[in-house]
Amino acid sequence: MIAALICAFSLAIFLQFFVSYCRSILASSRKVVLSDRVREVTSIADQEVAADDFNRLLQLVRLCPERGDDQSEIRAVGTYYGLLEVLNRVSLRMAPGLSGWFEQERQNCSYFAAVALDRRISYSRDLYTQQIADRL
Amino acid sequence: MLGPLDYMLWLLGFLTEISVVVFLVYRKQAIRNFPICFYMLCDAVVTCGLYYCVQHFGFNSNTYVFFYYYTDSLLNVLMFWVIIKFYQEAFAEMGVSRYIRGAAVMLILLTAVFSYAVVHQNRTHLTSRFVVELGQNFYFIGVVLTYLLWGAILKLRETRTRLIQLVLALGVYFSANACTYALRNLFPGLEPNFLRWVPPVVGLWLPMAWVYTFAHIQEDARLEPARLMVRAR
Which residues of B touch A10 (CB under 8 A)? Predict the structure, then answer.
């Protein structure tokens, strides 16, 4: 009985912490202005990124060398994005009013992926510059 | 028997734990975040100890089982120290750190007395089921403490992004572990195929999330915590 209560309580708190954690990452990345370089690479016209671009941006992120310190965040936001997609589909039938909020959240996830891509591109360029400097 | 995935998770866990310490030392923040550094170092030492036990006594040996569960409980007590540090940071402006320290000492003493009482009562049948229950209780205390801290952060309108993310990552870690331990108690059959993978993965999550926070979130970065809550519109 106690184990069942602990399980239910922990699961509810886990979801709350997980969603808040993901939203804190998204809120932090929202403050970062995307560079011209990443907008050029991803064909993003302005600072707004479409909600459906997330997977495409994530594929580009995976093509870049890993920085080693952003893996868990990318996975966490990826999981959050997947959760939002499922909830969005469900809400379209049951509560259409919520779909605007889900769309906004998914858009924030895509923006986070664009920021992660920007960081990785900068990192790759730094690596390349360092290699050239070492050869000279 | 342990497979390559187990060893890979161990190695990754060890490397990420050490990377937190190295990162904090490199950024000259180790003294300020001493409880975190100390916890991660101890966790890395325990990981080495577990590897040693598996190599010398075997995965199914009593030595490994006792080492695993007792070091897990000790690490939990150390983690309470980290939580207390977060409490002190959150309540720094109120000047109540003396009371927090007092409450922390009381909490650790109570945990020790409670654990002793439980061990004393169960000494005739100190089975693996008992240690799972003890682990579950420890993690649950961690969940409650972190949840209360999160409530205080929201109430006090704490805006330091770094503190917020460190606490939230800790909350995810504790609640996932508490849930896993409770599931192990409820459904022991789930252990071999599914639940045995959760603690190492969650153990990886915490140092990775903390490294990310220390690396990417500036100390003066601010965030409104109320914005993180999901509210019906």
Answer: 139-140, 143, 175-176, 178-179, 182
